[in-house]
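Supplementary notes for students who missed Thursday's class. We covered one full example, reproduced here. Read the sequence, then the structure, then the short commentary at the end.
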Amino acid sequence: MLFVSCERSGFKTIFPEGCSLQAGDLVFRRGNGLTSRAVLMADKRGGYSHVGIVVDSCGTMMIVHAVPGEPDFDGDPDRVKMETPEKFFLSLNAKTGEVKRLKGDSATAAEAARYAVDIYKRGVLFDHDYDDTDTTKMYCCELIEHVYKKAGLSVAGRERHDILLPGMRLHCILPSDLCDNARFEKIVSF
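Structure (token representation):
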């Protein structure tokens, strides 16, 4: 596996060179930070703390994802972002990764990706309440479920997890709910 240097000094992408992505692919990563550790503690079945969706942006494969704590500039709010796979999988934020693809339905996958681009363009903020019943703000798993559901396919199912944190009670989708969906096949893990 080759590692390609990225724009942030000292950090490299873990995204494998030559990996071919398609619109609608789900990309998972296991992060390094406190938020990632909290997600992993809550998600006993999972090995990933974050998820995004691959989109086609004028012929370039990009990743749309909702993320806290990764500002692009001073004053940048937590929001839905679009960035290159190399940046999404920068070692600053990723220890491991995986790409999964919807089996036999590239039209639905591409439609979900188009919805994700629309959400990015609207500047939707990150949902710190992790409330997937209100899509005015979104967290990563909510974004994926929402765009695929709009394309006609629920990928998270009905299960939601009750998570107790100091001062918070969350009822949310976890990355493993998406990663374990049998309708998706593993393309590569790294």
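Commentary. The two ends are 9 Å apart (CA to CA). The chain has five helices and ten strands. If anything here is unclear, bring it to office hours.
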